[in-house]
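Hey, sorry to bother you again with one of my protein questions. There's a protein on my desk that I can't quite get my head around. No rush at all, and the record is pasted right below.
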Amino acid sequence: MTETRHTSLEAEQVHLLGHDERTPTHSHPRGHLVYPARGVLALVTSEGSWIAPSNRIVWIPAGYAHRHRAHGATDMRVVFMPPAMATLLPAHPAVLAMTSLAREATLALTGPERRTAPVRARLRRVIIDDIVAAPEQPLHLPEPHDDRLRALTRLVEDDMSSPDTLADLGRRVGASERTLSRLFHAETGMSFRQWRTQLRIHRALILLADGLSVIDTALACGWANPSAFIDIFTAHVGETPGRYQRSVSAVTPS
């Protein structure tokens, strides 16, 4: 069951979500940052999905229809931003690196202690100043719209360990490798190989949060070589799979 604490209207919120709990699709008139202090949080929009472990924070601009899905027991902190501060953040949904300073400011802002409006404003500015210093994180999985691509992506999602090439999958969905390659670039801005790597990273984040071992996660996500999985995961997430798994299972302040 969801437990929710609002510290003030459209200012700070805490939502404690159970494993696999999902919110209905909704939007807000103000842009907001969403931080999973514990667990893994997926953000889904019509443009694709973003995924954030506890060392990342998600920015959602005003008016974007979206929904959330929790992987593992998730402590979701929400900080709404006034328009003047929102202009300092991207004009589109994004995953940003969560620094130690920004994390502590977020936990303080969303904690049970009541703070004055000037103090809350200063904490918001600390968060923004720290998270915009680093580039956006590559944890976005674009959603294709072409029927052939959607059929292909479902095949990949249903069997993550399959080694099928784009040509193999093209024969199953009735399109040539050249056509599918062109469509992938046009609709997602990625090659098929890049898109499948992103999908595998998303799935690995979830499986590791669920307690699956690093080796079993690598195999389940399609890596025959666990060392290659560790290298690619570390490059995308910023820490090794083992360290990430320990961090999402740790108890954090509420």
The radius of gyration is 19 Å. The chain has a mean pLDDT of 89. Residues 3-131 form a domain with the Jelly Rolls fold (CATH 2.60.120.10).
